[in-house]
Amino acid sequence: MNCKKIYFRLASLVVILTTIGVREISAQNKSITRMGSMNTLSFDQGWSFARYGLQPDGTRKEEPSGLEVSSFHDSGWQKLNLPHDWAISGPFRIELEGSTGKLPWKGIGWYRKHFTVHQADAGKRVFVDFDGAMANAKIWLNGKYVGTWPYGYSSFRMDLTPFLEFGKENVLAVRLDTEDWDSRWYPGAGIYRHVWLVKTDPVHVGHWGTYITTPQVSDQKAVVNIVTTVNNQSLKDEKAIVRTTLYELDKLDKPSLQVGVTKDISIDINAGENKGVSSKAILLKPKLWSIETPHRYVAKTTIHINGKVVDSYFTPFGVRTIEFTAKNGFLLNGKRVQIQGTCNHHDLGALGAAFNLSALTRQLKLLKDMGCNSLRTSHNPPAPELLEMADKMGFLVWDEAFDAWEKGKRKNDYNKIFDEWHDKDLTALVHRDRNHPSVFIWSIGNEVMEQQNAELTKHLVDIVHRKDPTRPVSNGYNDPDGGRSSGAVVALDLMGVNYFFGQQARWDADPRYANKPTLGSETSSCVSTRGTYYFGGTEYKNWQITSYDTASPGWGCAPDEQFRTNAKYPNLLGEYVWTGFDYLGEPTPYNSDETNLLNFRTDASKKEDLEKQLAAIRKNNPPSRSSYFGIIDLAGFPKDRFYSYQAQWRPNLPMAHILPHWNWPERLDSITPVHVYTSGDEAELFLNGKSLGRKAKTPGKDFRLVWDKVIYQPGVLKVLSYKKGKLWATDVVKTTGAMAKLALSSDRTSTKADKDDLCFITLKVTDKAGLMVPGSNPDIHFSIEGPGEIVATDNGDATSFVSFQSHERPAFNGMALLIVKPKKGAKGMITIKAQSDGLATGFTKIQVQ
Ligand code: GAL
Predict the structure, then answer these.
(1) Which residue range or ranges hold the Glycoside hydrolase family 2 catalytic domain (predicted)?
(2) Ligand 1: which of 447, 448, 588, 593 to mutate, judged by most atoms within 8 Å of the beta carbon?
């Protein structure tokens, strides 16, 4: 046979093998976003729920004993599917803490699920994986205690096998208790994330049992190291072969082209043993993961015994390099990337803590549109899907573990469980998340009370580094001077500073920290209410806050001020703004909870002043139940600040944004300042065609253009923005007519009923010409026909006590939100209607496929 023939034979063999590999996976038609075993089934459907202890109205209901036993009759319990947040339906109660959303989240929740595992599976291991359960989870199977996991933000696995009866009905019982948990924000309550049933052969890849790193990356090749933990849970010693094949992961999360394979590794694994296996594959011409092109790969690890595949395990991963420097900032794949991040709590507004992928995706799309490139999961481990979406959409993630260590900020926060659980929780976080290309920084805490404790800091950093030495560890400091002078910061790879950048020059001069890369782990904390404007120096009124983007608590600043600081210290890595979205709880400055005082714990004089303010707030009993910090409001509607960040973070996007609105009949002939955010460098403002002057930004100093002497006349306000002398972008704001109609627009025209997809419908109150009428708050009645149901409504008003489940609510400053779910398994057209007395009804339609 000549060489040419051999070459072709080999080539076709490779093609055949590749195709088999691909077919083998796609035959499962499996979307791979989650690391884990092939045999992972959703366990969300068909749960029963009952609430004991504290009830929504504040009364107590005795918790009977024996709720875990199989024979207990739960037929009278509420039937539901997960994820579930038992507190989001309220009611809001004025006497409850604003810091946790004035919602009745404290209580004891019991969940039970009856299920059968087929007799044919006898001999398998069966696990239940919880992505998160709030809080103090205790789990029983068939009346037998299986285990506990107190921290509500951690993902965890329980092995059901010892108590499982194959081919018969089993009862899984979960008890959650939030009565002994305190929080500085709304934590939600219940099994609020997904649950999975995993079936494996006795010899299988362990839980989060792969660790993929890429120690060498060039244009030509990447070395991919794979460490696999194999568990032998059988009673027999076994000989196994471990092999990992690499594929590209396409946009639909399907493995496509095979791009590499490891050598087969043979292992002897004794009964009951867990064994680590290292292998290596070479990826030629790797497609790097980046913010703009987030290429992903997936590793399929198979375990073979006697020629039979006993386990297939998938690990999505990416190939990228990260480098943190004190002088040149952060480098992704060798290129400088300024961190333009937002901090976010985990709630999804009107849906509460109950996880939903389309709600999260909506949030992430808005952040991307603003130019945000990084997420800080303040102040706890996120839902796994957040990282899966960050991998897919191109966000970098600061992955955070804790808001408190040994000394709590509240009586019953993490301090209660720190000693026993911090190692397990940190390990769970790092093992779960260390294969995500998006995760680039670990954070061991936020403004913890022990931030000066060098020993404890080092202890926690070491735990993380043992599990993953490839990423830096940071901590968010609100007492950076204290942390530096005590030496605690020495243990960290990165210095995270909340709000105090003014002293950076002094810190850079300290030889201990001159080479410590630093970033603004929390910045700004500007507060505002969408569509609300106050004049003449007033920033706060009626429990709302002006949207001129000037107000912030004492420790914070306007976005512009932070941009100025960033410009002054170009060596800093960037910032995480507090916060991307408004969230439930912490309605500063109307927060009547004592954690308000924490921000000044290092300055006694300020504390005294704050205590007085707090006493006054408490006397007035504020109705505020959600935050004002968001760049985007609780309903997902951008505030003016959105455009401030967009102008700065997307300099190549031609945009201009005028504020305020131009409906001020009571301000006729009065001075009404006009501000413009633009990615241009100059702009000219016109009122009713007359120029009010052209203004230019001084680089590094001005981040908005201000016409502060505009005399109000109704009509048309127009801005022409210029970049390098050329027309760049325009914006127009018009005085509107009276309210005339309701306009509905959906974020999708069709949807699938087989997923957990939600449709987000925006309502605008408009005049006859279709312009949104500022300040309009008419009562709206929403109704729906066809195969769908209303899940929630909202309007972004932080003081509204209308239940999120209500179909009636006023618009707030011209807008409201409706969230609709298609009925499972149904098809047809959903018609949604919004009605209000005297206004033309709004309609929209969504096709359910
Ligand atoms: C920070 C704290 C955040 C939030 C914020 C409000 O000090 O880390 O969790 O409370 O203040 O400005």
Answers:
(1) 327-475
(2) 447
What would the pLDDT profile of 286-305 be if each residue is shown by its tens digit?
999 999 999 999 999 999 99
Instruction: Kindly give the residue spans of alpha helices, DSSP state H, lying in 414-467.
Output: 418-433, 454-467
Instruction: Compute, in angstroms, the gap from residue 403 CA to the centroid of ligand 1.
Output: 10
- Whether domain 40-200 has CATH 3.40.250.10: no
* Least confident segment among 471-475, 557-561, 590-594, 627-631: 590-594
Q: Find the range with the poorest average confidence among 92-106, 120-134, 598-612.
A: 598-612
Residue 823 backbone dihedrals phi, psi, to 5 degrees: -75, 135
Q: Judge residue 845's burial from the number of C-beta atoms within 10 Å of its C-beta, 0-12 exposed, 13-18 middle, 19 or more buried.
A: middle
Alpha-carbon distance values, 41 to 30, 82, 167, 456, 674 (Å) = 12, 14, 17, 40, 55
Average pLDDT over residues 432-458: 97
**Band of residue 843 on the pLDDT scale cut at 50, 70, 90:** very high
Q: At 501, is the pLDDT very low, low, confident or very high (cuts 50, 70, 90)?
A: confident
Task: Give the H/E segment covering residue 214.
Answer: strand 203-217
Q: Which pLDDT tens digit goes with each residue over 390-410?
A: 999 999 999 999 999 999 999
Strands (E), 262-404: 265-269, 274-284, 296-305, 308-317, 322-325, 329-332, 335-336, 339-343, 374-376, 396-400
pLDDT at position 757 over 90: yes
- Closest atom of ligand 1 to 378 CA is 9
Q: Ligand 1 — pocket residues by CB below 6 A?
A: 379, 446-447, 478, 498, 522, 525, 553, 556, 578, 586, 588, 599
Burial of 695 (0-12, 13-18, 19+ CB in 10 A): middle
**3-class secondary-structure state, position 465:** helix
The predicted pLDDT at position 28 comes to 44
Select the CATH number that applies to the domain covering 650-734 from these four: 2.60.40.10, 3.30.1850.10, 3.30.460.10, 3.20.20.70. 2.60.40.10
Q: Which residues are identified as catalytic? A: 447, 522
Is the CATH number 2.60.40.10 carried by domain 741-848? Answer: yes
Is 741-848 the same fold as 650-734?
A: yes
Question: Could you tell me the residue ranges of all domains in the chain?
Answer: 5-13+203-321, 40-200, 336-585, 650-734, 741-848
The second-level CATH assignment, the architecture, of 336-585 is Alpha-Beta Barrel (3.20)
Residue with tokens 């594959």: 281
Ligand 1 closest atom vs CA 555: 12
Q: Please say whether the dihedral angle defined by the alpha carbons of residues 270, 274, 275 and 281, taken in this order, is positive or negative.
A: positive
Q: Is the pLDDT of residue 371 over 90?
A: yes
